[in-house]
Amino acid sequence: MDYIDGKEDRIKLDKGLFFGKGLFETILVKERAIFLEEHINRINNSCKILNIEKYVEYNDVLNFIEKNNIKNKALKITITDKNIIYSTRDIQYKSEDYKRGFSICLSSVLRNSTSMLVYVKSTCYIENIMEKNKGKNLGFDEIIFLNEKGYIAEGATSNIFFIKNNKIFTPKVKCGILNGIVRQWVVDNFIVEEGEYKIEDLLMSDAIFITNSIVGIMKVCEIEGKKFNSHDKIEEIINCYKTYIK
C-alpha cells in the first residue's frame, strides 16, 4: 500500500510524474528506523537543490512507522512538488547472500560527474535500474559505473570500497557519486582514503565491499571474472556496523 502524506490518498499530478522532478530515500527499519535523521536531512537538503517546496518532518515519519507497526522492512519515502509518498517492501537480502558475497561487473554506461543529478537521490533512476537488470541477466548481483574520465564512481544501488595493504579506499564524491548514508558511516568510523581510482585498482586490491542503506555492508566475491575472498578488515567493519544498528 502506498500512502500520500501518511494517509491513503490519490497521487497528485505534478512535475514529478511529467519530468522526474522528485527525490526518494529508502530507509532500513528493524526494531527502529536506522539512520532516520541522516535520511531525512539528505532528502530535505536535496529538495532545496531541486527547488521542491516540500520537506519531510522527522516526527511524521516516526508516527507513520509506529502507526503502521513497520518492522524489518524497507521504508521508501518519495517527495515531489505536490506529494510525499510512503511505501514499504520486504527486505530481499538473505543470510546466504552475505555468506557468499556479491558478484559485480562493469557497466558500459559512464557516470557524468558534472551532472547535479548524480549527487542527489533523484527519481530519475531508470538508468540505474536498467543497468542493474542487465547485470542480473548476466548472473551478477550489482554493476559498477565508471565516470567520463575513466575513474570508478559507484554501483547502480551502492557505493564501493576496496582494501589494499590493510588500508580502505573509496572513490571521492566528486567522481560522480551519491554519498550514501552507510558510505558516510564507514568514512566517519574508519580511516578511509577518498580519491580517484581506476578499475585496475579494484582488480589489484586484496578485497572489495559495497554498501547501501538496506544491504548494509556486503563483501564482493567476484568482479570481472576475478575471485575475491573476505578480509579481516571487512569482517571488522561488518561487526562494528551490526553493533551500531542493533
UniProtKB/TrEMBL annotation:
Record key words, sorted: Lyase, Pyridoxal phosphate
UniProt xrefs under SUPFAM superfamilies: D-aminoacid aminotransferase-like PLP-dependent enzymes
InterPro entries: Aminotrans_IV, Aminotrans_IV_CS, Aminotransferase-like, BCAT-like_C, BCAT-like_N, Class-IV_PLP-Dep_Aminotrnsfr
Cofactor(s) listed: pyridoxal 5'-phosphate
PROSITE patterns registered for this protein in UniProt: AA_TRANSFER_CLASS_4
Pfam families: Aminotran_4
EC number in record: 4.1.3.38
Signal peptide from the UniProt entry: none
GO molecular-function term, one example from the UniProt record: 4-amino-4-deoxychorismate lyase activity
Family: Belongs to the class-IV pyridoxal-phosphate-dependent aminotransferase family.
UniProt protein name: Aminodeoxychorismate lyase
Organism listed in the record: Sarcina ventriculi (Clostridium ventriculi)
